[in-house]
C-alpha cells in the first residue's frame, strides 16, 4: 500500500500492464529527473508498467544514456515520443493552443490517452495552470471559462 493512497493492492489474478504517458518537458528539473523517476517506477512495478516519454527527443535520449545499463534494462517498456512544441504559461487562447501546439508534450500525453494508446497521463507542470485546462478538454470534461 502506498502512503496517502486509499486503494487495495491488486490481487495476482487482477494484474494488468499499465500504460502511462509522461510529460518529460514539464517540471522544474528537466528530463534527467523525470527519467530517473520513471526508471524507479519501472523497477518497482515488476514488469507491469510501460511508458511513453513525451518531450524533446534529444533531451530524453540524453537522460536515458546517462542512466546507462539501468535504462537499457527497461528499453523494451519505454517509447520516446518527440514533442517539439512548447506551451508557455502566458498562453491564454486555449482553442488556439489546441489547434497550433499539437506537438506539445502535455497535449500529446493527453491525446495518447484519448486515443487509447495509454491508460493515464502525468505532467509535473501543474503549477503553471496551463496543464489543468489543457488536460481536461480532450477527455470530455468541462473547461473552465476563459480568463
Key features of this structure:
Isopropylmalate Dehydrogenase; 4 strands; 15% strand; four-stranded parallel beta sheet; disordered N terminus; alpha/beta
Describe the structure.
With 147 residues, the chain is of the alpha/beta class. The chain has one domain: Isopropylmalate Dehydrogenase (3-Layer(aba) Sandwich), CATH 3.40.718. Helix content is 37%, strand content 15%. It has six helices and four strands, in the order βαβααβααβα. It has a four-stranded parallel beta sheet with strand order 3-2-1-4. The N and C termini lie far apart (40 Å).
Q: CATH first level: which class?
A: Alpha Beta
The largest sheet is: 4 strands, parallel
Helical percentage: 25-40%
| Unreliably modeled segments | 1-7, 127-131
Oligomeric state as shown: single chain
Q: If classified by CATH, what would the architecture be? A: 3-Layer(aba) Sandwich
Please tell me what the overall shape is. globular
**What is the third-level CATH name, the topology?**
Isopropylmalate Dehydrogenase
Return the domain count: 1
Sheet/helix structural class: alpha/beta
Tell me the radius of gyration: 16 Å
Element string (H = helix, E = strand): EHEHHEHHEH
The N- to C-terminal Cα distance equals 40 Å
Tally of helical segments: 6
Q: What is the count of β-strands? A: 4
Quote the beta fraction. Answer: 5-15%
Read across the widest sheet, the strand sequence of neighbours is: 3-2-1-4
The CATH superfamily is Isopropylmalate Dehydrogenase
Q: Mean pLDDT across all residues, rounded?
A: 79
Amino acid at each position: 500500500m502506498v502512503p496517502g493512497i486509499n486503494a487495495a493492492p491488486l490481487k495476482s489474478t487482477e494484474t494488468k500492464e499499465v500504460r502511462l504517458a509522461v510529460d518529460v518537458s514539464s517540471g522544474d528539473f528537466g528530463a534527467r529527473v523525470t527519467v530517473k523517476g520513471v526508471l524507479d517506477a519501472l523497477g518497482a512495478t515488476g514488469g507491469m508498467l510501460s511508458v511513453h516519454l513525451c518531450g524533446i527527443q534529444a533531451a530524453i535520449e540524453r537522460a536515458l544514456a546517462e542512466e546507462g545499463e539501468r535504462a537499457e534494462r527497461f528499453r523494451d517498456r519505454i517509447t520516446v515520443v518527440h514533442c517539439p512544441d512548447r506551451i508557455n504559461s502566458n498562453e491564454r487562447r486555449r482553442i488556439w493552443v489546441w489547434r497550433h501546439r499539437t506537438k506539445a508534450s502535455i497535449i500529446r500525453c493527453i491525446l495518447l490517452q484519448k486515443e487509447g494508446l495509454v491508460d493515464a497521463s502525468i505532467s509535473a507542470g501543474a503549477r503553471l495552470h496551463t496543464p489543468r485546462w489543457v488536460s481536461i478538454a480532450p477527455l470530455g470534461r468541462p473547461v473552465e471559462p476563459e480568463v
